[in-house]
Amino acid sequence: MGQSEPLSRQGPIVARTAARMVVALLCLLAPPTALAENVDPQGDGSRYAWSENAGWINAEPLGEGGPGMVVGSAGLTGWMWGENAGWISLSCENTSSCGLTSYGVVNDGNGELSGRAWGENTGWISFSCSSPSLCDPYGVVIDPSTGVFSGRAWAENIGWISFSGAPPSAWSVRTSWRPATQGGRKPSPRPPRYRPASDP
Questions:
Q1: 3-state helix, strand, coil in the chain (%, to 5)
Q2: Which one, 94, 96, 106, 111, has least CB within 10 Å?
Q3: Residue 113 near residue 127, CB atoms below 8 Å
């Protein structure tokens, strides 16, 4: 019969193993934090999108420095959160799943967005469709001079997500991102390939 470790040594081993399991579980459950979220730069609440079927969706969840949306010249990363929508990942980089399922919201460098985001409750979220043979054209654009988002994205499980609304109940998502300068001047903004539908 083999000898087991003395009871005096088993306590610390069990405690270390339990602590490691708790830390691993917390890492798996918590979304990764974004190090440079750049939404709502003026702190005026310009961080909400609206879905008629899912309610408000926050592009800066958990406040400044949280795991919110990060807008870059090549695309969006980070997370959005809605009480009814749950967590929405804007890039497979957030979940380290690019090898299995490559997705992400792409920025053409001038603020015209395309590609897809993913949410467990929302399903795939498409940020643009410009082919009239496949869809009524839609999309999301960032104004290169103000950083204000406009337009709509389509989520397979919750329908339209609007990134700005007109008065009297105006809202928008705004970023501090601006297009890179070329030869000392900003690229001239291109009109979007679609005309954003008016939001409620």
A1: 15, 35, 55
A2: 96
A3: yes
